[in-house]
Design brief:
The protein has ten helices and nine strands. By secondary structure, it is α/β, with parallel strands linked by helices. Helix 3 packs across helix 4 and helix 5 packs antiparallel against helix 6.
Length: about 270
């Protein structure tokens, strides 16, 4: 309890919004509420803004930290590294470095889509830093996506690789490089095999839709490989159902957190989230 209060004082000193800098990136974050830290991680091509409604609800009990992954939203990759591939493993390391910067020893990691992959990667590489993981529509390997989805992404990746070498305007070329990076992120990440998933020690909730972009058989395999996992496959739910049927998804998340994560503190409602 004393350590948690000390962490809250450290984050309070840094304010509710800010940037964390390394030699390669500038990472944007926002902090809401009090209690056990809960970090929310968005999907491919998105930003922290997709979580404002869920964050308002969770901040009643938790200290919610919203983060823009490298190359997304307000987070930027510095000039000399702007063309490099985006990798889930790098984003997971960014997350751990941000936790160090904010003085957070352990946190609940809640991710959607690629954000779920980041959460699982971080919990595998640094198991001592995850109090729990909520993976919504995540995958452990690129092959977890349906084949037709991977073929579509591959076509986009190859097309942008060709087009970015044509002498367009600098602004258009940057857009093409960014599209190539986003497509490459889904084609080549994550790389969480059975051994890596087996290293996760925190309780894990795997939520996915039966009509998801992720094959249900892959999600079931993930649940078999992760030692302390709960699995919920939701009928008639697509990949983006978390953002459209949020009440249903949030009910499952609250039940999991209350049952599997001891020590959560109550806090005042945080009404000023946008």
């Amino acid at each position: 309890m004393e350590k948690m209060e000390e962490n809250e004082r450290k984050t309070a000193k840094r304010g509710t919004k800010g940037y964390f800098h390394t030699k390669d990136i500038r990472l944007y974050y926002e902090i809401y509420g009090k209690g056990m830290p809960l970090i929310m991680l968005h999907g491919n091509g998105e930003s922290h803004r997709i979580f404002y409604r869920q964050a308002r609800e969770l901040a009643v009990k938790y200290q919610v930290i919203l983060v823009d992954s490298r190359g997304h939203g307000k987070s930027v990759i510095k000039r000399r590294k702007q063309g490099i591939p985006l990798l889930i493993s790098d984003m997971a390391e960014d997350l751990v470095c941000l936790m160090d910067y904010l003085g957070i020893g352990k946190a609940i990691l809640l991710g959607f889509s690629d954000g779920a992959n980041v959460a699982l990667d971080a919990a595998s590489s640094h198991p001592e830093r995850a109090a729990a993981v909520v993976s919504v529509s995540g995958n452990a390997l690129p092959s977890g996506l349906y084949r037709f989805v991977r073929l579509f992404i591959m076509a986009e990746y190859l097309l942008t690789c060709i087009l970015e070498h044509i002498p367009y305007s600098l602004k258009l070329r940057k857009k093409l490089i960014y599209r190539r990076q986003l497509a490459g992120l889904m084609l080549y990440s994550p790389r969480l095999n059975a051994d890596r998933l087996g290293q996760i020690t925190a309780p894990v909730l795997l939520l996915a839709g039966m009509l998801d972009l992720i094959r249900p058989s892959h999600t079931r395999w993930m649940a078999d490989m992760i030692p302390h996992s709960d699995l919920k496959l939701i009928r008639r739910a697509t990949h983006t159902a978390f953002l459209k049927k949020e009440k249903q998804y949030m009910n499952y998340i609250w039940m999991f957190l209350e049952r599997r994560v001891p020590g959560g503190q109550s806090a005042t409602s945080f009404s000023d989230i946008k």
